[in-house]
Structures are given as C-alpha cells and as structure tokens.
Amino acid sequence: DAKTTQPxxxxxxxxxxxxxxxxxxxxxGNEYVYWYRQIHxxxxxxxxxxxxxxxxxxxASLIITEDRKSxxxxxxxxxxxDTAVYYCIVKVEINKFYFGSGTKLNVxx
Amino acid sequence: DTGVSQDPRHKITKRGQNVTFRCxxxxxxNRLYWYRQTLGQGPEFLTYFQxxxxxxxxxxxxxxxxxxxxxxxxxxxxxxxxxxxxxxMYLCASSLLGTSAYNEQFFGPGTRLTVL
Lengths: 109, 116
Description:
The complex is a heterodimer of chains A (109) and B (116). Chain A is mostly beta strands and 109 residues long.
C-alpha cells in the first residue's frame, strides 16, 4: 500500500497561509496525490490533485517535491471556515481511496 | 442540487434490527462507492460499483452487509442484524470512469448510524 503520513493537528491564524505537509515516500510513478477536506459532520470535499507538477486552483495550491515523496497543501489566506480535517491521499488501486487519519487544521481568529 | 445525495441523514436503531441506506449519485457518473467512517478516523472503503456491477468488496464488508445498484443508478446498502460496532458514518461517493488515472470522487453528506 502507498501510505501517507500527516501531522495529526495544526493551528493557523486567520488570514495567514496554512501549509499542510504530507509524506508519501512509497508513491508509484503514475499515482496521483489528492487532497480532500472534511468539515465536521459533512462528507469529504475535493480540494486539489497533482501528479508531478505544482498545481493551483481557486481553493489551494499543491507543491509536490521533485522526488514525489512528499507534498504540501497551501491555503493562502485561511479563514475560520477552513477549519476541517485535511486528508492527503495517494490512490493505490484505481477504485479506492486510502484516507488515513488526516490533519485537523484549527484556524484561530 | 446535482451533487451526491444520501438518505436518511441519521438513523438510530436497536441492535438486531435491519437498516437500509440509499445513495443517489451524480446522474452521469458510472462508478459508485461506499465508505464507512468511525469517530476520529478517515473513511474506509467498503465496496464499489461500475454501472450495476459490484466489482469489489472490502473484507470490512461482512456477510451482514449487502449493497445493490439496480439499473446502475441509485444504490442501497443494507445491514442485517445490526451490532453496536456498526455505528458509524456511511458515506457514498460517485465518479466518472475516464481514460486517465485521474478519478475524482464526489462524496455525499453521509448517513450517521447509531445502534443502541
């Protein structure tokens, strides 16, 4: 299994950038890195995905290291509504996501 | 709303009773997934369908669990003779099979089951 390692929790001040790290040292060459988040009592919500290159969308940026063994999700200006559990996922088999325990991001005023 | 919907959102049942949950995927999506999430953990894969065919089941899916997707549209997940250990959030997701390895899954709000 391609596993991911994330810190269990992080704090961030409102308005500041939140940088969430993820280690995925066993990732295979054709496996994407996905990030989802889950706000309390809701289903997971897609944020961004990437393969090799850095990616940016309206929600976040994804920085993937050159060796692809780790990545960082960046929320450029965190708000209180960004408080959630963030999951870094490397899909091992095409039909399954392995979520892990994620990082609980606490955005504080 | 054209997202994934699940019904009911909450279900409380007594141990030993049967329960059934429904998932309506995004209309053009041909893949449908069920996950289970216990408190403090990430979702765990249970099973998935491609159109009406159930192609894979996790070992987490005991004989008391059965899932169907008649006609390749909505899906149901039934749990027979519920146990307290079945208490969890049951999440449904759908996706569109494409030609690339990219496969974004869209999740519903989940059904929270409490077995007393």
